[in-house]
Amino acid sequence: MSIFSGIWVPLITPFADGEVDHAALRALVRRYADAGIAGLVALGTTGEPAALDEAEQDAVLATILDEAQAHAAARGVDAPAPAPAPALPVLVGVSGNHTASMKERIEQLNALPIAGVLMAAPYYIRPSQAGIVGHFMTLADASDKPVVLYDIPYRTGVRLELDTLLTLAAHPRIQAVKDCAGSLDTTLALIRDGRLQVLTGEDINIFNTLCLGGSGAIAASAHLRPERFVALYRALSAGRLDEGRRIFHELAPLIQALFAEPNPAPVKALLAAQGLIRDELRMPMTRAGDALVARLRALEGLDRIESHAAA
């Protein structure tokens, strides 16, 4: 049974004075583990991996894995030597358009206690569907870990056609897809086929995808109110449609606001407003605008809290 279900948080990379803030990153891992999320994504798009050099990427991943294991140990989870998988699964983003280099990276990751690798189609060069199949098959062959495909054509410039996805589903290590293609027909066909677990990557589609029979979500907006996202998943998984609908309607304004400007700027702004991180990104990403920050603060009631504290 594949583990790729539930609510997964694609972790941001916190910065402080231009450097990775590893203390804040550890605190975020603990926060989401305590909230009951199903897993974490390290070095996904939300984590700004393109702005990190190789050493920084390795250090970020090491911190996340170490804290996930430390959290498990603190809760009494046995961890047999020598290299136990962390209690909280960690999926690792591997991006690029050079198949050989990505293969080398995956071979390095094979030695780590990760849950799998998340891979998008080669960006910018826009290969044929046959080229995409060959690319993913080569990388899946090199991986000792499960593979999650990432279908996000508005970033890569090419979509994974349904026939391509169904062909790739035959590979034993390709187990899931992060679905950002915006095609209801494709989403439904993959769910009905049943070989790939379908995790929506479009947060506003969480309710729809789960009701159709999807497995869960990789949701940047679950950085905020993670317990409520977990409650949404649990309600719908248990068939409590009315409860799930109420929770989703409660979350929808926040989800919409968090994607009003390029991700992860709004997420970082609101986490910073809550005192969890500094509001820092690396160029070419910029901080969320003042108007959006005010809207986000109002949605989370932060201004009311501060006014009450001041009084």
TrEMBL record:
User: By its UniProt entry, which InterPro entries does this protein fall under?
Assistant: Aldolase_TIM (IPR013785), DapA (IPR005263), DapA-like (IPR002220), Schiff_base-form_aldolases_AS (IPR020625)
Q: Does the keyword Cytoplasm apply?
A: yes
Return one GO MF term. 4-hydroxy-tetrahydrodipicolinate synthase activity
The family database entries (Pfam families) matched by this protein are listed as: DHDPS
The entry's pyruvate-binding residues are 46, 218
Which HAMAP family does UniProt cross-reference here? DapA
Q: Please describe what this protein does.
A: Catalyzes the condensation of (S)-aspartate-beta-semialdehyde [(S)-ASA] and pyruvate to 4-hydroxy-tetrahydrodipicolinate (HTPA).
Similarity comment text for this entry: Belongs to the DapA family.
**What's the protein here called?**
4-hydroxy-tetrahydrodipicolinate synthase
Give the species.
Paraburkholderia sediminicola
The primary gene name is dapA_3
